[in-house]
Protein: DUF3810 domain-containing protein
Amino acid sequence: MNIPKINKKLFFILLIPIAYLMQFLSSRAPYLAERIYSRGAYRLIAKLLNLISGYIPVSIAEILVILSVLFALFYIIKTVIKMVKSRSEALKILGSSLVNALTAVSLIYFSFMLLWGINYQRLPFSQIANYDTSPASIDELLEVCENLTERANELRKYVKEDDNGVMKLSTNINETLKRAYMGYETASKVYPELSHNYGRPKGVIMSEVMSYLGIGGVYFPFTGEANINISLPSTSIPFTTCHEMAHQIGFAREDEANFIAYIACRNHPSPDFQYSGTLSALINATNALYRYNQDEYFKLRNSFSEGIIRDLTASNSYWEKYETPVQDFSSSVNNTYLKANMQEDGVRSYGRMVDLLIAEYRSQQ
Structure:
């Protein structure tokens, strides 16, 4: 006997609590999530996805997102038309459409957890790297900021500039994306967990839209692609690319992906990657310093080279163009997404990168 169509859909809807149970149980057993999923099952999943999408030059994710949005709009319009034509059946049509939508959401959520989402519950990178992340003094934070300032000032001398004296990439965008893996190759000799068969990062055609949403890059777990907003200032592109590649390895937490991107950039042979990563770390660290000691912050800020000041000014000017309610809404959605994956700090978790910077600095003393 055939199962009624509605029952089949309800069966798929049950994937929502199953996926949440997977998330909940893995959050209670991070060691098992690390060993069984992140270092086991996910490695195989990522390798397969990279084989499928890694050698295709365009972003499959971007195509899928556009098609999904168009299909959703078409489906909504079609449903409204059907409801208008059959007013007596309007509630039935609406109910059926909502069940279809819930079925689609459940399949997406379950697939997300299976393909990547459990990585949110793996062991913290600080534990993997055996770092001391005990509370730091202001003096320690200041030392890290001074060290980063010195290195950023030195590295700034070796990057190329445009006609306005602002940093520009040493190669075109495609070559920049292609060579991003080189930093990870070197870094993996110190951190074996960073070793991976990387699919090539993809520049997004609709990068301007990403900027209006306040998005620098997106890892798309359904295709295993690191998608990059290529309209970003040159100072941001190398770091952002390495950040999305950190997600590609299986490090889902934003603060950890930032720190890993910094490590990959620092170990890259090209000055533009080294500078981009160091500048991003410097911004994070000095922002933390500003919250606790503004006098030291401004003193340090005055020691930034003229090149760094030009780069920061250009970056701020770039983002000012995209400050809209849409960007605020996007940030709110991202905050909700992070909390849904049991990252309780939400978007504030980006600031915790500083703890890892200090922990690494301690390990080198």
In short: Residues 5-121 form one domain. Residues 208 and 231 are 7 Å apart (CA to CA). Confidence is low (pLDDT under 50) at residues 326-331, 345-350.
